[in-house]
Amino acid sequence: MKRRSPTLALVTFTLLLAAPTASAVEPEPIPESTWITIQRLEGICFFNNWSPIEAGWRVFLQGKQVDDGALPEIGKIPGLTGLALHDTSVTAAGMEQLEDLTTLTSLALHGTKVGDSGLARIGSLKRLTSLGLFETGVTDSGRTHLKKLPDLSVLYLGFNDVSDAGLVHLREMSQLRVLYLGGTRVTDAGARRLQRSLPRCQIYR
Q1: Count of domains in the chain?
Q2: For the whole model, what pTM was predicted?
Q3: Can you give the CATH number for the domain in which 172 is found?
């Protein structure tokens, strides 16, 4: 059976806007071509204000019909601060389309196949504070790219082929405050060694 293009499948589309506040700056309008494309993606999509403090757009897409073909339009959204692509068919190749999202602070890729090569692209998103990588095929060697993210404070690495050896790359990330390592090959001893290097970080296994 021929796989349907993500730009041809209709979905339920919901627009949610936070109430404007004196401290919030209204985000720029989404380009019409982007709006139309996202409405046609098969999955679930939400747009909303990020918060009264940091105004911007959030996008959540879910479903295997959402693939790399959707990302060029996503990458055009001005002021995008949050992006979640849970359980989609997005790959490392698609990450190139997100490199210009300089306002992005939260990125969740749980259940995708971005792998270590995808992390190399993510390293250009310098404002990221939260990164979700559950079940993404990343390994110990991919950890080196995370050091390029100076503001990263929350990191989800669970359910990947990560061992004590890969934690070495995290020891210098003193800005980390929350780290999830459940479902990995990290040992109790490895977690304790990392904790000594990152005393302000909550490590969950």
Answers
A1: 1
A2: 0.80
A3: 3.80.10.10
